[in-house]
Amino acid sequence: VVFLRKGSARARLYSLAVAAALRGHGIGGVLLDACENDARERGCTHLRLEVRSDNAAAQRLYQRRGYRKFASRPGFYEDGATALCYEKIL
Questions:
Q1: Alpha-carbon distance values, 58 to 12, 41, 73 (Å)
Q2: Domain ranges of the chain
Q3: Is 0.85 topped by the overall pTM?
Q4: Percent of the residues in the chain that have a pLDDT greater than 90, as a whole number
């Protein structure tokens, strides 16, 4: 799920999910490519997202794909977990 705001050059990746049984097969990367391409086609120059601080696999995926951490948000998730904020220039 990607959110786009009219007049904004930034898109926000709200949710990217892969079934547990299918993780590690490159599906997350394919979905991320699709999100980035769609955002570019719609005129966005940046893609932002939040990821749980305890989700090391997702953090590695985003970092390998050129995302840079720019902030953290303590208590962001319903269970009180911290979110790490990432951004990529498209």
A1: 16, 24, 17
A2: 2-89
A3: yes
A4: 98
Cβ-based neighbours of 29, under 8 Å, separated by 6 or more: 61, 65
Cα gap 16→47, rounded to integer Å: 13
pLDDT, tens digit (0-9, with 9 covering 90-100), for 47-57: 999 999 999 99
Q: What are phi and psi of 13, to 5 degrees?
A: -80, 110
Task: Tell me the sheet residues that pair with 89.
Answer: 46
Spatial neighbors of 81 by CB under 8 A, at least 6 apart, are: 52, 53, 54, 75
**Is 14:1 a contact under the CB 8 Å cutoff?**
yes
Topology (CATH) of 2-89: Aminopeptidase (3.40.630)
